[in-house]
């Protein structure tokens, strides 16, 4: 991963509380230093530190560099027999030495990304109660709502926490209800926030809201660690969520709240309830929408499609699909002057019953209702299956968030390609086995004319003698930078304009803007630089809309960039000094 260079401008901002350079005060002595993942350096403690913190006799004598430790840890990692064992090894390292943990991943990001996150993290979540060694994060359960504030106080108060990721575990990574194991998705998202945007690991809090589970395998598992009861819903559930949000805002009034993997009937509803009042975000809805919009902006630039004319079909109308629809609709309205209602008419959404129509009534979620077609627009004589909709609509864009493998058939793609010069096809379902169509097939069926982005990594496809690089719509290129921008600006809320600014900043990094055979989105390996761009765009949008509460944000562009960079945590050992008495 690219490491950002230091600048002469950084010196003027090193006094900031989040500035991640210079000496680090440590309150411990002896073995307590070594058992603290935040302060532990293992074999890299200097001679002076060993003397100051009474570490002689607790460590082997040879003093090593962080780079030497990374080399050893990499060898240990590769010796593990499978990806789940590697995931477990990394979790153990994280609990022992967080600097070494992040430095190892940063050094081998491309190789390790799928192990520390999807798909392997899904396996770890499914096996959470059996792999459990030590807790990481905050465990709140619906039976103890009156103790939530007390339990949160174990993790500090006031300005101690910048970023909270919270999940209720109902819909995890395409594997469904995982109950208390959802704590690992909160942990994983925060790992990415640190890796990709420098969110301080000591200033973040992973949370699971345990409401029970409807997963029979977990309920029947004698080792299951969560509440052994069916998932609670309705008023009691809503009260639980509200009690948590209220307590979190009271304990950590500056913290940004990131909702993760909530169920379809709750995700959008809760986001709509809290986002007018709280700086909050749902990655499944807004993150997916933002990164997909960025890929679309780049694709429209390459193919000369105007937003005002674009026809978009979305196959799969869960949290991700509707989140994408909302993001596209909001952008069309903002950029063209159309109303939201007019913009939504350019988007056709399908789910299990086929095209969403008003006659579905109560089968529609509140989030789906704005995209349901009335009888005049879509009479019964018109088929509601995907092929019929593509034939009728003649879309420029086909997006898959259905988790239905092979749903984009040859007939569907060829029909689409008959009507548009550059079909934009995004099979986004992941993991890989759930993709709606492979880029290789899409490329073949469109005679090499398709612009593509996928939800999982795929190899390039051949177009004549040229390779076409397939972009991966990876939320990790987007959500960390958004969070960084909100945290640093202390924005009161995360607005639609701030999200659009983030999408545009990501799209501006598209390699395809310079070379059409390059991917529509940049590679995740360059994500820290991308996060700087996104954070800057989000901060400027927050200032323009009057949401930013931070008073010390520089006006000068160069100073603003350096102000952001100096507050991004880097996995480097800082000199340890004794904590001063206060």
Automatic annotation (TrEMBL):
UniProt key word Metal-binding: yes
Biological process, per Gene Ontology: malate metabolic process
GO function terms (MF aspect): malate dehydrogenase (decarboxylating) (NAD+) activity; metal ion binding; NAD binding
Record's GO cellular component terms: cytosol; mitochondrion
Residues holding a divalent metal cation: 260-261, 284
Keywords recorded for this protein, A-Z: Metal-binding, NAD, Oxidoreductase
Record: residues binding (S)-malate: 430, 474
SUPFAM superfamilies linked: Aminoacid dehydrogenase-like, N-terminal domain, NAD(P)-binding Rossmann-fold domains
A Pfam family hit: Malic_M
Domain Malic enzyme NAD-binding: 285-543
Catalytic activity, reaction form: (S)-malate + NAD(+) = pyruvate + CO2 + NADH; oxaloacetate + H(+) = pyruvate + CO2
Annotated Malic enzyme N-terminal domain residues: 94-275
Cofactor needs: Mn(2+); Mg(2+)
Positions annotated as active site in the UniProt record: 117, 189
Cofactor note: Divalent metal cations. Prefers magnesium or manganese.
Record PROSITE patterns: MALIC_ENZYMES
Homology family: Belongs to the malic enzymes family.
Database matches in PANTHER family: MALIC ENZYME-RELATED, NAD-DEPENDENT MALIC ENZYME, MITOCHONDRIAL
Full protein name: Malic enzyme
